[in-house]
Amino acid sequence: MSRSSTANPPNYHDLLKKTEHYDKDERYMAISDLCEALKRNASRVNTEEQGVSGANPAVPHVIIDPQTERRICSAVLGLLDDKSNDVQTVAVKALGVLLITVQEEQVVEIADRLTALVLDVDKSDLRDVYAIGLKTLVETVPVQMGNVVSARLIHRLITGIDQNSLAIEAPPDKAMTGDEKNKLDKNLEEIVLACLNVLTDLLTRFGGSNNSRMTNQHEPLLNVTLAQLASSRPNIRKRAGSTIGVLATVISDTLLHRLVDRVLEQIDRAEGLGKSGKKRARQAAASTTGGVAARAEKKTALTTNDGQGSLITSDTRSLIRTVCTVSGTVGHRLHQGHVDRIVPIFLRFCDPEDAVTGDDEECSDEEMEDSTNNNAFVEGLSEEAATAMQIDLRESCFAGFESFVLRCPALIQPHLDQIVLSALAYMRYDPNYSYGDEDDNGEYEDAEEDDETLEDEEEGEEDEYSDEDDMSDEEDDENWKVRRSAIRTLTAVVEAAKHDPSKLWIDKYAWRKNSDKTITVAGALVNRFKERDENCRVDNIECFTRLLSYTVSAASSGVLVLASPSSMDDDAFSESGALLVDFGSKVSAAIVKACEKQLSAKKGGERSKSSAIALLSTLCLAPGGIGGSDQITSVFRHVKLILSSADDSVSRRGVIASNKSLKLEALCLVRIMLSCNKHDATDVKNALIPILLPELCMKFDWYKVIAEALRVLMEVPHLIIVGSATKSEQESVANSLYLAVEPRLAEHDLDQEIKECALLAAASLISLLHASLTDDQKNKVLVLLLERLKNDTTRMAAIKTLSVIADAAKKSNELDLTPIMNEALGQLSSMLRQQHRGLRQGALECLDRLVLCLGPESDVVMDDGLFDCVLEDLGKMITPTDLHMCSLGCSACTSILKARQSTGPLIKNHILPAVLEVSKSPLLQDKALVSLQRLLGQMILSNAIDFDELYDSLANQIGAGNSKSSKQMISNLAECIATIAVVTSRSKQQTIVQNTIRVIESSNGNFQLTQLNLLVTGNIGRKVSLSSVQGATEKLEKLYVQAFDSSNEDIKHAAALALGRASAGSMDAFLPGILTALEESTGKKQYLLLSSLREFIHCYRDAKAGGSDLSSSIPLILPHLENNCENEEEGVRTMVAECLGSLACIEPTSVLPLLGNLTSKEGEHSILVKWTVGNAVKFAIGGRINPNEIGPYMPTFLLLLQEDDLAVKNVALLMVYSAVHHAPQLVACLMKEQVLPTIYNLAQLNMERKVDLGPFKHTVDDALPLRKAALSIVATCLEKCPTCLDIPAFMPVLAKALADVEDIQLQAHQIVISMCARQPLPIVAAADSFVEPLEKTVNKKKGTKTGTELERVYEWIKSGLRVMLAISALDGAMNSRKFADFVERIKRSDPHKPFLRAVEEEI
């Protein structure tokens, strides 16, 4: 603890004096107290500067004078070379505090002093301490001093690196012994390494500054670091490469390209490896006259533009690593020419011809020798050193490939096949080991070639791994590093192709030396599961798992089709346009067999087993799952070994009981197998019952394993039912499940997750296998369930369980819930009064299902007042303020009334007033309206209320209290009245219709009453045929037509809807009249008739018109619609388009050819026709037309995008948007050729014009709707079909959109944020182009705006800041100097800080 008082100011004079004390403990305490005092003083200064209240007044701020500051700095620096390590440590810590306390002059002095100490050759013992101090200075110096300190340090560090590196390479002094020279060189090497390390940190923090003093040092820095790549010291070369990687992120494009060119010139002169590079190696060796001369020549070549020096082989690795580092950090800034030069150079060192294995028996001894020892003669390297260098060099090359594939996918595309071929060859590069007859059976090893038992397979696998143990130390090499890097390159290829991985399953490569056999990437990965190295094996399996996962995802989105054996002959595949991937039984069987070998291997490793289980889990999602009965049985056997304890039989096989996490993963696999519906249920059932079910029912220790085992047991009952189990099997399984679940259900001291899983397992058991349980067992479970329902921690799970059981009890008489019915209903009723909305919602849903399980009233004796209490609570929940709870409440009341008609008076007393109140709410809609209608209908069916009384109560809602009713309210009341009319007697229906007709005829100017009755007749006619009411159809048709001439618009609209709805129930009576009137009418009346026709078509689709067939009427309807396609009124054309779109969904074979012909129609009104066709197609796609029907016509419809008329273009864009949103497969294959070029052009189209309004002029942009629609399509494509987009071509369009008007900017902001999650690499590459538009957005001036306009400006600014933060969070984005400076400026800006805090709080 510090000895200085916290209440008194520190005495710096005494502390400084004690730092010179002879006792190290005194010096330690003094420097500790000094450090604490400086911390407090710095904190006090910061508090006062920020104006923060609450600072401790007992600790006054002591102003340190310049002389004292200088003394403190000298004392701290002096203690850096103290004899005590503890004192040195605290001194370094104090230095970090001192740098934020003292003035700039002292900071510069500290920097100079530390730099001098680091560069001092005689300070080797303490150089590490000085270097740490200098790094601390760089990391903690205030930002405002960064430019001064950087300029001061960089020059001296460059000089130190240059001078000391030359001294290392200089010939030894004749008077100096060899040991002295080695010691001096080591000392000089430490200085160079320390300088490079500090430079790296300095560039990381301040390298991106726009200060001229920093940018002027970029070129000298580049030259000196490049020179170090030719150093004789490997550590210097490696550290220099790291420094260059950081430097590349801050230098200009000119310097970056010069850097890459210089390094490539040297690598290009390097020899390759193996036979292909042997000749070059000899030439390089012959031209090398000496090590020192060669390095001097190479340094000259690296620091000048015209160097022609030879490259020393041992340095090639450093140059390759440097290029890899640069490509990894700023690969997106390289151009195509650089990539075209880099890749062939890398491939020269990763020549597939040199990738030999111990299985390549046809390789000659000379070839094998070349692959392992071709560089041994260079520089006199030993065979071991040459092999190690060769491994490191190839590993670096593949790391470069991986970086390019991930960061520069567009630039690397021309070379991708060569990279894949090289990676496939080297993923099996193992010259010192033979796997036996690998790959002799074609692409996938024949999974059916062996009929050995499980024991034989395991013994063979043990022998295979035993061979590995028997290998001598001489044969144990590090070639696995090359294989691992090659696999990681393939992983990058898989990641880059994740949206469309079909080529990795289809394209074949010759991966084996001197062999004509070819293999796909997927097949090669599966065949390499036998990899002997654990790291490579795990990476290999994980790579294939990722590929399989992406393939399944692509298949679900329609990009490709995974064909199982049962679907290979489906002709739909050839017509869909999607790529077909053959995922037959041979493929899945090979995968399963390879995974089983990992699971049964004696020394396969836990990681390999875990990866194999993950792969099998992913395979379950593919067509056919893991295969047939043989594969399922084998997998279950391996899972059993993992779950079982180490008994004698297990020990005999050498399999040790697996750890907890492996058991958990195995159980997850079983659960997925049972629930994925990809396997034959009978096969799974036959394998599960004898092999795995006893293990699943056993007791486990870890709570997560117990919970997962219960989830597996939850899936078993459904499997038993669909698997056609016999009665004895059902009873046996049900009894086993009961014995496993009941103890967990009864025990109280358990984890919450176990309790919930036990309840779900019990729900599955009781609901599906209750017939196989005894009454005592079922009652025991129900009693325990009731106990869980009363417990606060488990009641939510118990509600879900009871709901499932109640659904089963409704369908079966063998499941009796009578023992718990009263208490359960009472508990649920009490929950309706709780504040927790989720609890009330769950209780309502459960109550709705539970009351339907009530049998006849004589069978179950209910508690007195129970329903009275329940309905009273339900009445309070039926309100228009919460429509979802209102819907659930009405549904529960309906169920109660249906189960107990004796509750009718209670319903009338508690529920009816609330129902009437809700029925007149203009908010009532959707599910709440449907539930309310069902309740009203049930009231009539159960005689809970008289029909006439309810009818009058509903009808009198119109105009109640002399208030004007809204259209929505009138429409809702009409629906409710029609509902109760439909369920009443036939005579009542006829009376209602006749009375309604009389009211309409004698409305006496009451427009709302007329509107209500018109809608009532239409709604009744939609559900029952009005032809049964004598004379009703003729009168109604006449009234509807007369209403079209009314002066009230609401009556006209109601009449049109009523005519269309009535036509759905009496097509023959009303439809001919509509079509006849269409021929004779014009203007507004024509619009109303088309509205009736549209309503008729919609009602027909919903109810199928009582079985009537519309196909015979289609030829009569289409001519009228075709004639109105060119109507001058846009509203009429819109109605025509809706009718055509709906008819296309019903009769596509009749309507689609017509639309196709209209698309190419020419004439005076062709623009209007094409506008109507585009809208019709949009409505058809939105109406869920069969994609196979409309797909062949889409190329014709997309021609509308090429029209010159802006309105047609806009409609065509909306049509494409509808297709992308609802059925992306319709346009997926047509996007790049027909859609994207037009979209990208329209997204940049600007057609502004000035409109003279007299006192002022207004600017109108006619292309604004087109730009909005185009960006909407792109945003939807990113979610639905990302592979359809040409992302590189879209980035300039996006940058321009960010600078557009406000609405377009906001759309562009959302697209950028979406791409940050889905397509981060292109965003990182284009970050610089986003800076200017984003800066204008976030610096938007509010001007004189107030109120909502001011809030809009603020939201605009925050939207731009969200984009900035989203991009800055991406890996590599802050490597862009321009974007990083922009982010730093905004974060330091005081006006932006409140907005940034608000945005960060949202995240």
SSE topology:
Layout: H1 12-18, H2 24-50, H3 66-78, H4 85-98, H5 104-119, H6 127-140, H7 146-169, H8 178-206, H9 212-215, H10 218-228, H11 234-247, H12 253-268, H13 275-287, H14 291-303, H15 313-330, H16 336-349, H17 365-373, H18 383-407, H19 409-412, H20 416-426, H21 454-470, H22 480-496, H23 503-506, E1 508-509, E2 519-520, H24 521-527, H25 534-556, E3 560-563, H26 572-576, E4 579-582, H27 585-600, H28 606-619, H29 629-643, H30 648-653, H31 660-675, H32 681-696, H33 703-722, H34 727-746, H35 752-769, H36 775-790, H37 795-811, H38 818-831, H39 837-851, H40 866-877, H41 883-899, H42 904-919, H43 926-941, H44 947-955, H45 967-983, H46 986-1001, H47 1007-1023, H48 1032-1043, H49 1049-1065, H50 1067-1080, H51 1083-1103, H52 1114-1123, H53 1130-1146, H54 1148-1159, H55 1166-1182, H56 1187-1190, H57 1194-1197, H58 1206-1222, H59 1231-1242, E5 1248-1252, E6 1257-1261, H60 1264-1280, H61 1287-1297, H62 1302-1318, H63 1320-1325, H64 1327-1338, H65 1347-1368, H66 1377-1388, H67 1393-1402
Parallel strand pairs: 3-4
Antiparallel strand pairs: 1-2, 5-6
Helix pairs in contact: 1-2, 2-4, 3-4, 3-5, 4-6, 5-6, 5-7, 6-8, 7-8, 7-10, 8-11, 10-11, 10-14, 11-15, 12-15, 12-16, 15-18, 16-18, 18-22, 20-22, 22-25, 25-28, 27-28, 27-29, 28-31, 29-31, 29-32, 31-33, 32-33, 33-34, 33-35, 34-35, 34-36, 35-37, 36-37, 36-38, 37-39, 38-39, 38-40, 39-41, ...
